[in-house]
Amino acid sequence: MMKTFLSLVAAACWLVSCMPQTSEEKLPVLGQHEYVEKTTNELTTTDTVYHRVADFSLVDQDSAVVNNDTFKDKIYVTDFFFTSCPSICPVMKKQMLRVYEAFKDNDQVLFLSHTIDPEYDTVALLHDYAERLGVSSDKWHFVTGDKTKIYDMALKSYMVTAMEDKAAPGGYIHNGAFVLVDTDRKIRGMYDGTVPEKVDMLINDIHRLLKEHDQDKAAS
Amino acid sequence: MTRIRQLLKGYLLFMICLLLATACSSPYDNDATRNLSAADKIKYRQYMVQGQQLYASYCSNCHQEDGKGLARLIPPLAKSDYLLQDAGRTVCLIKNGAAGQMVVNGVVYNQKMPANPSLKNIEIAQIITFINNSWGNEKGYTPVREVENHLSACH
Known about the structure:
Chain A is of the alpha+beta class. Helices cover 35% and strands 25% of the residues of chain A. Chain A is built from 5 helices and 11 strands. By secondary structure, chain B is mostly helical. Chain B has 7 helices and 2 strands, in the order αααααββαα. In chain B, β1 (102-104) and β2 form a beta hairpin.
């Protein structure tokens, strides 16, 4: 009797530990935080300044300008790739396509893919790529622009690696990260876009972030 | 106590039967390989095991683990008419890469495929055998000498 009870408890614990995170806890804010002391009316308070995505302006597959305003009041998922990439990009795109399908009908969620090979990946090529992938251009922007600016955005704003390296397959080094950005330009999650389980986590976290925004909106 | 012993005995017997049963048939066998000679059958299974590993490191990034490719960007290998129609063409493609338009199962693809000059003939034979007999494909065993013949005819 005791044994059955114990094994039941063990099974329950195991089940709970395997369930996806659905707690009400907020997603963390990633990146370096700065603490700024402010003195007003002889009262000293400390403000936390979070890491935020910098200003940018790039061009997408429809030759339209894509900048911070494009993502105003939106959650977005971003990554870095190149169309001629023989290594991890097709796997990443297959996974990103899964996220896209999950939020296709939610206009609060957008997608942003940067090419790290802008000399080869022209607007026309990106247009063809997106069309072949079967995605809508007002939902998923494939952007190109000045190479150094794109690398700078990767490293400084999104905290991912992207650079040229003649020795790497295809000529570029980049990691397969998907970065989740909230409506306030803050980074709320990083996921390995080549691992389906991590991408499941991203889908789950987007739902959590949407909920957080809904609550914030209701509170204000 | 005797009951546990009996159960254990039963379990052991079951495991032995299972081992014997799996020793004679392999999950890789299909209609096209059933009539191979005993020696070729062993080689075929070795090719499948090696081929799977080579596929994972050379091909699956683009053609994906399930062989289905990626939308209209990367063509499928699973049930692919282009692959199954012409074995020689595939051999040359793996070795030398491909560029330009390609019609697979009625869909036009236009993505460059990189060459793999470092692959040995035996490795190409293992990859071909693996992709020709996975995901529902049943094309049979491609021995290395066949690959050599095809390679000498590539242009």
